[in-house]
Amino acid sequence: MAFTIKNPPEFTLEIPQWDRDSLGDGIEMAKVPEALLNNEVYLKAVAERLEHVTPVMLPTSGWTGTTAPFTQTVAVSGAVDGMEPMVVSGLADGASAAAQKAYIKAYGIVCSGTAELGNGTATFKVYKKPASDITVGLKGV
């Protein structure tokens, strides 16, 4: 008999405890390690997602609105409504001093605004439009 790994993985706190009255039936007894195995698979998937960084490109032409807040909604693979990822720098390694300066300005503007995830999307709101395109990372998506 093989254990069934649920897809997507599920976490449960409902793990029955064996006692003297537990049936010695292999099928019934297998439900406990199967639930524990599913918990491990679930926790592994959560841990991997929390460490994953999804790059998100915000072009200057994508900001809408004539007054603040300016908004931009972009597609983000793996985003789910209610997730709370961390915005991290997406500055390319070895960027020139001029590119770093422009990135720092744009990053400060994006990070001082707000962001909200939907199913497959992220909506950013800023109070000043960045002067350059920017790629940020969403850690936890």
What does this structure look like?
It is a single chain. This protein has helices spanning 26-51, 97-111; strands at 53-58, 70-75, 86-89, 114-118, 121-126, 134-139. The chain is α+β, with helices and mostly antiparallel strands. It has a three-stranded antiparallel sheet. A three-stranded antiparallel sheet has the order 2-5-4, covered by helices on one side. A hairpin with a 2-residue loop joins β4 and β5 (121-126). The two termini are 35 Å apart.
In short:
This protein is α+β, with helices and mostly antiparallel strands and about 140 residues long.
Q: Any idea what the radius of gyration is?
A: 22 Å
Largest β-sheet summary: 3 strands, antiparallel
Helix-residue proportion: 25-40%
Q: In percent, how much strand structure appears in the residues?
A: 15-25%
Sum up the structure in keywords.
single chain; 141 residues; alpha+beta; three-stranded antiparallel β-sheet; 2 helices; 6 strands; elongated
What is the fold's blueprint, element by element?
Layout: H1 26-51, E1 53-58, E2 70-75, E3 86-89, H2 97-111, E4 114-118, E5 121-126, E6 134-139
Antiparallel strand pairs: 1-6, 2-5, 3-6, 4-5
